[in-house]
Prior knowledge:
Layout: H1 2-24, H2 29-45, H3 75-116, H4 121-125, H5 127-137
Amino acid sequence: MNYAKEARDLDFAYKVRHALNESAENLPVATLDRLASARAIALSRKKQEAPAVALAFRGILAGNTGLSFQGPTSWLGKFGVVLPLLVLVMGLFGIYEYEQQQRINDLAEIDVAVLADELPPDAYLDTGFSAFLNKEEE
């Protein structure tokens, strides 16, 4: 229902514009000049739009050939690229070493549990003993 009203309003606006355009052709030149000057005055009083704010970083897109500490060609710029990569590699290496140490600690705990148990280690290798443990769990 709202769509039909909008369509009627739009159709009415087109008809009014068409009628005004037809009648504007028949206006005297003095009236057209007065309308043009009134339009110019109205446009001069129009509020200026606020300028758009954009952040621009020097040397990122255009390239920086000057002597400065910014840009991909300076030693500081190269260090700024290499440092995060170095930190990433060191972090991954640290995570790998930590996981390996955790695995070694887990295996050591299992070894201590097996050696501290009353059963001999050969009992754990026996398939019949595994079946016996599985039956007891059920």
